[in-house]
Write a structure and sequence with these properties.
The protein is of the alpha/beta class and 192 residues long. The chain has helices spanning 19-22, 30-46, 81-84, 112-118, 131-144, 161-175, 181-187, and strands at residues 10-15, 51-56, 97-101, 123-129, 148-157, 177-179. It has 7 helices and 6 strands; from the N terminus they run βααβαβαβαβαβα. It has a 6-stranded parallel beta sheet with strand order 3-2-1-4-5-6, sandwiched between helices. The longest helix is centred in the N-terminal third of the chain and has 17 residues, at 30-46.
Length: 192
């Protein structure tokens, strides 16, 4: 379903737009995603709507990382402090809500739901990397929490194009409304 409207209290939730992930050679679309996410963040701030920046990081020894037999190993990547830093283009503002996650989705084990509910947020716009993992996991949890969801599909990317397409064609339309950055900017509520 295309973007029909945004709730008056909608937050932007940007997933894993951090130096270590955006900088991976496996993210060829990252520059475009970052530019569009930065446009969304600036517009949400101008409209005085919440901007949530989510990043993933772990303790240096990995002791707080999820350990399962089925997840893909990190290929020996040891996250540094720079790995978790948000990309400069997002221009992190003092009003932004910063969330650190230690698994795929941004709700479980974080205070994201609490931060949104305290601000009266009923809808979210999602963007980020990786479409089929961080974004989709967060979207599924947002739907379970009862949020109205809009997806900025041109402001997200995945390491596997077929996984990205599956999420935006088969999964996201069941969870919310799907459109572009321009579609979402056109529906932002007017604010002083």
């Amino acid at each position: 379903m295309p973007i029909t409207q945004l709730d008056p209290k909608t937050a932007l939730v940007a997933i894993d737009l951090q130096r270590g992930i955006v900088g991976m050679a496996t993210q060829p679309e990252a520059a475009g995603v970052v530019a569009k996410a930065a446009r969304l963040a600036a517009a949400f701030r101008a409209a005085r709507l919440p901007v949530v920046l989510v990043h993933v990081t772990f303790a240096p020894d990995g002791s707080d990382a999820v350990k399962t037999r089925t997840d893909v190993p990190s290929s020996g990547v040891k996250p540094t402090a720079e790995f978790a830093e948000f990309v400069e283009e997002l221009a992190v503002a003092p009003s932004d809500i910063l969330v650190t996650k230690r698994q795929w989705g941004a709700f479980y084990g974080t205070d994201l739901d609490l931060q949104l509910r305290r601000r009266g947020v009923t809808g979210i716009v999602l963007c980020g990397i990786s479409t089929s993992i961080g974004v989709e996991s967060t979207a599924r949890n947002a739907w379970e929490h009862g949020y109205n969801i809009a997806f900025a599909v041109d402001a997200m990317a995945d390491m596997r194009p077929e996984a990205h397409q599956n999420s935006i064609e088969r999964i996201f339309p069941r969870l919310g409304e799907v459109g572009t950055t321009a579609d979402i900017l056109a529906k932002l509520p007017d604010r002083p």
